[in-house]
Design brief:
Layout: H1 2-25, H2 30-41, H3 46-50, H4 56-68, H5 76-89, H6 93-105, H7 110-132, H8 137-143
Helix pairs in contact: 5-6, 5-7
């Protein structure tokens, strides 16, 4: 039984690795990726140049898919406000600056920016309390309707 399970795990891992390798083979080259980034931003930002060349195409594909393509479920302003709230909590001054700029670019008001950041602080506050006091999770869920 153990031997059969081990063989199944190895086979599954090999299949996943082969699929990942095949997907990596289909990725654009570093040069193609840089040209696409430059076509989008007018430059290749330093952080993309500093990124490992073996992974920059995947990082750009993720960025482009989440932030640039127009067929996403969330509107750009909403995404920028979420990103800003997360950036403020990390904290990351690069992300905070950039996402504030993006939120404004996409029409967010100063009140919306302030509320997004404050919402992040609100969640962080109660997370600190709940986790620090080790409130029983099942009791907490039951108090708010379960499931």
């Amino acid at each position: 039984m153990r031997k059969t399970l081990a063989i199944a795990v190895i086979a599954a891992g090999t299949t996943m690795l082969a699929g990942s390798f095949a997907a990596a083979q289909e990725m654009p080259t570093v040069e193609q990726t840089y040209r696409d980034i430059e076509a989008t931003f007018g430059t290749v930002p330093t952080h993309f140049k500093a990124y490992p060349k073996s992974a920059v195409a995947g990082a750009w594909a993720m960025t482009k898919g989440l932030e640039i393509k127009g067929d996403n479920a969330l509107e750009p302003k909403v995404k920028a406000l979420i990103n800003l709230a997360v950036a403020a909590q990390i904290p990351c001054r690069y992300c905070t600056w950039f996402e504030t700029k993006m939120a404004r670019t996409h029409g967010a008001s100063e009140a919306e920016i302030a509320e997004a950041v404050t919402q992040a602080a609100y969640v962080r506050h109660w997370s600190t309390v709940l986790n620090g006091l080790q409130v029983d999770f099942e009791t907490f869920k039951a108090e708010f309707g379960g499931e």
